Amino acid sequence: MSAPVWNPIAGDGATICHHSDRTACTVVRVTPSGYTLYLQPDVARLDGWKPEIIPGGFAGHCVNNHKQRYTYEADPTAPLHRATRRKDGHFRTTNGERVIPGSHHFHDYNF
Questions:
Q1: N or C, fewer C-beta in 10 Å, the chain?
Q2: Cβ atoms within 10 A of the Cβ of 14, count?
Q3: Up-side HSE of residue 102: CA atoms within 13 Å toward CB?
Q4: H-assigned helices in 1-111
Q5: CA-to-CA distance for 52 and 10, rounded, in angstroms?
Q6: Cα-flanking dihedrals φ and ψ of residue 93, to 5°?
Q7: Spatial separation of the C-alpha atoms in residues 20 and 72, rounded to whole Å
Q8: Is 66 helix (H, G, I), strand (E, B) or coil?
Q9: Which residues 6+ apart lie within 8 Å of 78 measured at CB?
């Protein structure tokens, strides 16, 4: 069963997924056909979270990585990213990275 189709509009939050990191963005423009959208990365600020690193692995391990919480602010100076809808209904950037609905910034301190 496929996921429901997302029909973004300007002003919606979106996230570009890069391997384990994610960049929160704002949809700034959608073409009339709905098949191309332009995203602008937001400024994401950690909301009081600090990494808890324990010894281990190559340089240590962050045990509270998934407790990160961010606040978001539009950044009108950030470069635009273009994403197109694929045949399966999902959006991907010109680099092939997935775009998902909602603002979900994340930095993987274990990678």
A1: N
A2: 26
A3: 3
A4: none
A5: 37
A6: -75, 175
A7: 19
A8: helix
A9: 40, 41, 42
What's the rounded Cα separation, in Å, for the pair 40 and 111?
A: 25
Q: How many CB atoms lie within 10 A of CB 69?
A: 10
Helix (H, G, I), strand (E, B) or coil at 45: strand
Length of the chain counted residue by residue: 111
How far apart (Å, rounded) are the C-alpha atoms in residues 7 and 88? 13
- Residue 40's DSSP bridge partners are 26
pLDDT tens track for 68-104? 999 999 999 999 999 999 999 999 999 999 999 999 9
**What token pair was written down for 18?**
């890069």
- Cα separation, 9 vs 61, in Å, equals 39
pLDDT digits (tens, 9 = 90+) for 2-50: 556 899 999 999 999 999 999 999 999 999 999 999 999 999 999 999 9
| 101 in Cβ contact with 8 (< 8 Å) | yes
